[in-house]
Every structure is written in structure tokens, then in C-alpha cells.
């Protein structure tokens, strides 16, 4: 940047100098708060006076409040690297992050059926999509334009979730939330295929395994097909069987893909093994979803937590820890408590998804332990990364 640009940058509050700052910190803080409230709700403490269905609130806010905030921060930051055009910063970033935050604050008080809450919550993702579309179209980098329809899809799913709450159609709500969880898993598969092998090669000094085109198409095609099928297919034995087959194929393809990324070389590198472990939750979750759709002993809600508490939570914590260091001009060296946080977030996913399957009588304990370990894990991130995300880059560069 020129000196003039640096002077302009210095006038911007560091938190709003690039998308990863406000959305990573805000999303992590919100997830801790939401999970503490969920723990209180499980003990019948009335902490959401305006919300009529706390279960709906929990699922909605962890997906559309927490998960998509992190995704927005990541994409808004990465788009600058991909296109070479400066990312969204200053008041536009403050505006879109404010539109994300307001529904999170208002919903506990005014409820999920409040018109203002719904309108605000349906505005911020299309605004992010617009910010993303402009530089991509400007440089004609069509490969990355797919994030725009993805964000529009998530907005439509968000709208459907509010419609389900309004009509008290809880089967529709479960279908929508599960579809959103599958879509986020599919996005992790897309981005994981780009960055996890790359990070592994750079850190281990090994050769990158050559992608197998047929495998890549099968991995992404099957998981996106499963996502669409979960949303639109009728719940009938024939369609459930077809969907289960697609889910099993997607699980197998993703497991083979992961096995080619030299995971065995990552044992001493926490910033790597946390991503490999997080990705492993995807094929496990897809298998669990196949079992659930066939009604073979586990519920859809339980199966979906392999993808949310497991894959989403673990990959997110690993990525925000790494991206925050790299984009703040700091070396990729973790403080020891973050390694503990990685272990805890993996434990949160395993306890929430696996323990009720092995010992249904311990389901309530699984809820408590999983939520508590999640809060500690993301709380550690917030404590360590607060000064990193709220202060200027260590190397003095803009961003």
C-alpha cells in the first residue's frame, strides 16, 4: 500500500480493518454466550424470555448465528487474497457485522417470531454476498463466485427456519437445520480440499498428493447432492434409501480423500492435526446421517451433531486460530492453552455425538459435558486472541 492508504488504514479501528477480525472474535464470543445460555436452559432456567422454543433457538443460533459468522469472516478475508482487491473494511464492515449482531441480541428478548428480528437477520448474509460478488466479477474469477449462491441458499434456509417457527412446523425446522449443517459440511469439504493439503505440505516439507479428478468430483458431487436431497426429497422408504446410499458414497469418498493428505505427518503440529481431525468428523457424520434417515436406532438430531459439534466446531476453531495469526502478521506458533482448546473442542464433538449412541442413559451428561468443554475451548480462543484481533498487525502492514 501507498503511504496515503496506510494513513487511511490507521484511522480505522483495528477490529474493522478486515472481516476475520470482527467476525472471528464476535462469533467465538457469541458461541460461548449461547452455549452458557443453553446449559442454563437445560436446567430449566428462564434466560430467554422472548423465545417460545429454546430448542429451535439453540439450533438456529449455532448454525446461522455462530457458524455463518465465521464463514463470512473467512470469505471476506480470503477474497482479498484471491482477487488482489482490498477487502471490505471500515464502516461497510461495521454495518454488516452490526446487522449480524443485532438479531443475536434482540432474539432472546423479543423472540424468534418478532418481525424486526427476522428482517435484520435476513439482511446481513445477502449484504456479505454483494461484497463478495463485486471483486470476483471485477477480476472475472468465476471459480470463487460460487460463494454468492451459497450465501443466498443459506439466507433462504434461514427464512425457511423462521417460517417453520411461525407455523410451529418442527419437522420442517429439523429438515432445514439439517440441510444447513450438510451445506456447511459441504463448504468445509470444498475449502478443506484447497487448504488442508496445502498447509500440510508447507509445514511438513513433503510433496502435495496429486488430486484424483474422479475422486474430487465424487466427493463434492455426492455431498452437495445429499444436501439438496435432504431438503427436497419426500420422506418415504424409497427416497430415504436412495438418500442413504448417496450419504454412504459421500462418506466413503471423503474418507479416502482425507487418507491421501498425509495425516500421519501431522502428529506434532497442532495447527494441522486439528484440521485433519475436524475433517474426519465429516465422513463419520455422513455415515451417521445415513443410519438416521433409515431409522436404524439413532435420531437425525443426534447424527447431525457429528457435523455441527464435531466437524463445524473443530474445523472452525483450527482455522480461526491459524488465519488470525497469519493475517495479523504473526508467526504460526500456538500458545500451549490453544492446544488444550483443540483437544477440548474435539472432545466436545465426540461426547455430544458418540456418548448418546453408546450409552443413551448418559445423554443428559453428554449435553452438559459437551457444552462445557465447548465454552472452555472457545473461551480460551477469545482470551488469547482478543489482543491479536483488536490491535493493529504486528508487522505494521494494513489489514
UniProtKB/TrEMBL annotation:
The chain crosses the membrane at residues 20-42, 62-79, 91-107, 113-133, 145-164, 176-193, 214-233, 239-259, 271-294, 306-325, 337-359, 365-386. Pfam families: NnrS. Keywords: Membrane, Transmembrane, Transmembrane helix. The keyword Transmembrane applies. This is NnrS family protein. It comes from Oceanimonas pelagia.
Amino acid at each position: 500500500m501507498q503511504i496515503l492508504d496506510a494513513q487511511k488504514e490507521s484511522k480505522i479501528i483495528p477490529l474493522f480493518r478486515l472481516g476475520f477480525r470482527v467476525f472471528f472474535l464476535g462469533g467465538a464470543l457469541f458461541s460461548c454466550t449461547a452455549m452458557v445460555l443453553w446449559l442454563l436452559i437445560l436446567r430449566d432456567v428462564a434466560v430467554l424470555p422472548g423465545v417460545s422454543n429454546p430448542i429451535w433457538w439453540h439450533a438456529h443460533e449455532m448454525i446461522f448465528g455462530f457458524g455463518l459468522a465465521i464463514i463470512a469472516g473467512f470469505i471476506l478475508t480470503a477474497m482479498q487474497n484471491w482477487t488482489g482487491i482490498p477487502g471490505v473494511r471500515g464502516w461497510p464492515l461495521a454495518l454488516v457485522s452490526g446487522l449480524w449482531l443485532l438479531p443475536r441480541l434482540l432474539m432472546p428478548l423479543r423472540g424468534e417470531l418478532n418481525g424486526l428480528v427476522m428482517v435484520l437477520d435476513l439482511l446481513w448474509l445477502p449484504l456479505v454476498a454483494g461484497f463478495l460478488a463485486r471483486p470476483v466479477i471485477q477480476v472475472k474469477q468465476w471459480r470463487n463466485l460460487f460463494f454468492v449462491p451459497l450465501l443466498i441458499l443459506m439466507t433462504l434456509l434461514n427464512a425457511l427456519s423462521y417460517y417453520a417457527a411461525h407455523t410451529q412446523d418442527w419437522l420442517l425446522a429439523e429438515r432445514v437445520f439439517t440441510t444447513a449443517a450438510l451445506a456447511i459440511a459441504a463448504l468445509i469439504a470444498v475449502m478443506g480440499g484447497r487448504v488442508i493439503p496445502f498447509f500440510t505440505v508447507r509445514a511438513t516439507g513433503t510433496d502435495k498428493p496429486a488430486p484424483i479428478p474422479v475422486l474430487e468430483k465424487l466427493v463434492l458431487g455426492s455431498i452437495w447432492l445429499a444436501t439438496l436431497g435432504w431438503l427436497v426429497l419426500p420422506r418415504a422408504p424409497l427416497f430415504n434409501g436412495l438418500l442413504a446410499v448417496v450419504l454412504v458414497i459421500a462418506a466413503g469418498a471423503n474418507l479416502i480423500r482425507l487418507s491421501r493428505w498425509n495425516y500421519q505427518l501431522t502428529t506434532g503440529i497442532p495447527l494441522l492435526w486439528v484440521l485433519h481431525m475436524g475433517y474426519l468428523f465429516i465422513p463419520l457424520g455422513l455415515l451417521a446421517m445415513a443410519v438416521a434417515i433409515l431409522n436404524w436406532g439413532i435420531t437425525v438430531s443426534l447424527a447431525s451433531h457429528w457435523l455441527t459439534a464435531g466437524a463445524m466446531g473443530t474445523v472452525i476453531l483450527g482455522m480461526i486460530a491459524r488465519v488470525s495469526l497469519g493475517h495479523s502478521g504473526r508467526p504460526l506458533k500456538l500458545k500451549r492453552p490453544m492446544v488444550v482448546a483443540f483437544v477440548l473442542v474435539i472432545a466436545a464433538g465426540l461426547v455430544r455425538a458418540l456418548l448418546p449412541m453408546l450409552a443413551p442413559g448418559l445423554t443428559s451428561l453428554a449435553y452438559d459435558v459437551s457444552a462445557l468443554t465447548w465454552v472452555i475451548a472457545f473461551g480460551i480462543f477469545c482470551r488469547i486472541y482478543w489482543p491479536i484481533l483488536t490491535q493493529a498487525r504486528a508487522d505494521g502492514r494494513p489489514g
